[in-house]
Amino acid sequence: MKRLGFYLKIYRKIVIQSFKSKMSYRSDFIISMIGMILTDISELLAFYIIFLNFPSVCGWTYYEMLFLYGFSLVSLTPLQCLFDNNWHLRHYVYDGDFIKYCFRPIDIFFYYISEEFDTKGIGQFLVGMGTIIFAWNKLKLPVTFINVLAMIVALFTASLFMIGIMNFAAATCFFLTNSGYVMVTMNKFRDYAKYPVTVFSTFFKIVFTFIIPIAYIAYYPSLVVLRPDHIPVLTWIAPAYGILFFFLSYKFWMLGANKYSGTGS
User: Fold this and answer.
1) Mean pLDDT of successive 10-residue stretches along the chain, which has 265 residues
2) In sequence order, what are the residues at sequence separation of 6 or more whose Cβ sits closer than 8 angstroms to the Cβ of residue 133?
3) What whole-number distance in Å separates Cα of residue 94 and Cα of residue 175?
4) Which segments of 54-196 does DSSP mark as H helices, in order?
C-alpha cells in the first residue's frame, strides 16, 4: 500500500504539471476539445441516420445502441487520457531515446506512461456520459445504488481491456522493426466495440471475445445494466478477465522494455 501511495503521489504531481503546461496554450486546448466532441457527435448522427431506416439491429433498439456507444466512449476515456503516450513508444525505441527510462528507480512502465496526459479525452468523456444519461432515461432503466455500482464496475472492467489491447500493440515495437501498423490496426478495432457482438459472424464473435477482446469494451459489461435478466457467464467473469488481461499486457510491455538495450549507435 505504501508503494501504491508513492506512485499515486507522483502521478498527481505529474498530471497537475501537465495541465499547467497545456493550459498555457488555452486556444489549442479548447480547439482540441471541440474537435473531439464534434467527431463523436458526427458518429451519433450516423447512428441516427441508420436507425431512420431500420427500427432495430439484430434485436437491439436505437436507444440500446446509443447506450453502447456512450458506454464505449466513457470506457475508452482512460486509454485516451492516461495511456496516450503508447503511440509514441516506437519512436522512442527506434531513436534510442527510450534508454533514459531505464535508469530511474521506479517502474519503467509507470514512468513512461505517466509523462503524457491527453486532455482531449475529457471531451470524449462528456459526450459519452451525456449519451449514456440520455439513453438511460429513454430506456427507463431504474436508477438504483446497485445499478450505479454495477455501471462503475462495468466501465472500469471495459477500460482494462482496451488499455490492455493497446499495451500489447505498443510493446510489439520492442520485437518488430515496423510495428506502427499494429497500433493503427488495433486502434481501428475499437470502432467495432460500439456494436453488440451478436451482429458479427461466429468467427468474429470468437475473435472479438477471446483473441482481440473488444466485445468486453462495451457489449458484455453493459449487459449487467441493459439486460439484467439475461446476463451471460462471460459478463460475470469480465472483471477478473479484465484484470488478468491488463496484467498480461503489462508483463508483455515490461518484457520488451527489459530486453531493450538502445540502438547500438
Assistant:
1) 72 75 69 76 78 76 90 92 92 89 86 85 89 94 91 94 95 88 89 87 91 92 89 92 96 92 55
2) none
3) 11
4) 62-82, 89-95, 108-113, 120-138, 145-171, 180-189
Q: Name the grid cell of 169.
A: 500493440
Amino acid at 19: F
Grid cell, residue 119, equals 486532455
By C-alpha distance, which of 261, 253, 228, 259 is closest to 83? 253
Q: Looking at residue 29, what is its pLDDT?
A: 67
Q: Give the whole-angstrom CA distance, residue 238 versus residue 40.
A: 26
DSSP 87-123: GGHHHHHHHTGGGGGGGSSS-HHHHHHTT---THHHH
C-alpha pair distances (Å), 36 with each of 98, 120, 121, 125, 193: 29, 6, 8, 10, 18
Task: Give the three cell numbers for residue 37.
Answer: 466532441
C-alpha angle 242/107/9, rounded to 5°? Answer: 90
CA distances from 71 to 11, 170, 218, 225, 253 (A): 26, 24, 6, 11, 27
Cell of 175: 520485437
Q: Has this prediction a pTM greater than 0.70? A: yes
Q: Are 168 and 252 in contact (CB under 8 A)?
A: yes
Task: Please tell me whether residue 175 adopts helix, strand or coil conformation.
Answer: coil
| CA nearest to 154, candidates 44, 72, 96, 246 | 72
Look at residue 264 in the predicted model and tell me its pLDDT. Answer: 47
Residues in the chain: 265
